[in-house]
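Predict fold of Nematode fatty acid retinoid binding family-containing protein; 284 aa.
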Amino acid sequence: MTKSLLLTLALISLVSLPVFSTNTNGGFYLLLKKKTGINWNDEQISLLGNLSGKVFEEFKDVFVKNNNKRAYLNFIQQFVNITNSNKDVPDNEFLFKLVGTTSENLNSSSKEIKEEAQYTAENLLNRMSIIVSQKEYKEFQKLIVNVVDFSKNEDGSYKKYSEEISKLVKSLGKEGKNLFTENGKSARLREFVLDFLENKFLNVILEFVEECPILIEDTVPGEFDFVRPIANNNQPILKKCAKKYFKKLYDGINLINNPEKFKGQPIYKFVKAYKKMDEAVIME
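Predicted 3D structure, encoded as tokens:
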């Protein structure tokens, strides 16, 4: 086993997969029933667990199968840092809420809170920028999104997890048939699986790659001065990502207006890219 594979597995082991037991407290059933409107039984929960386990294995495989690529280890390291950066922020839309809290705290009258927010803002900006400045991010983004693809082919077959989804849908009966919309997609099934897994690391990665399918590029070696959406014609997604995750932070620390203050710091090399983001937002 290679050192890089060992490191990959060690980093992924920082996150855990809940395992269903038929002895699970009834509170779990009540919570799931309240959220989904379905009266789940042991068999159905077990089948949902099987599907969720399969999804998590595929998520891990994205890293394991690419463990020889330095960028993938880098992705893990950056996302682990982001995931562990604040334990008080709710897991749902964790990164978006963390950015919001941080930008608010940058205006705090408390020196201690303001200094902590300054550190968090610089750290988040740096790590998010490192992620999207890797050439492999385009491939990585596609692989991660594909992990939670609960949709059908034109012939009605499931694109992924066919055996697990078929068994669950059959067991759920009428509720199972209603999981998929006319376009063959199932946002509800995705929600069930992510709720079952309750995996913050996975959720943070999913949130970012879905909201920020963008690339920061260095048109001059070592100078990250260009930003574009992965799909070149999808300019709105660049604006949305910039506004939701980057702008509040670089505005909050006054980075664009006073870049020299950050000279020598990791985020300084991305200043020109942030200016491009700002131009994209202003051009709305």
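The CA atoms of residues 47 and 168 lie 6 Å apart.
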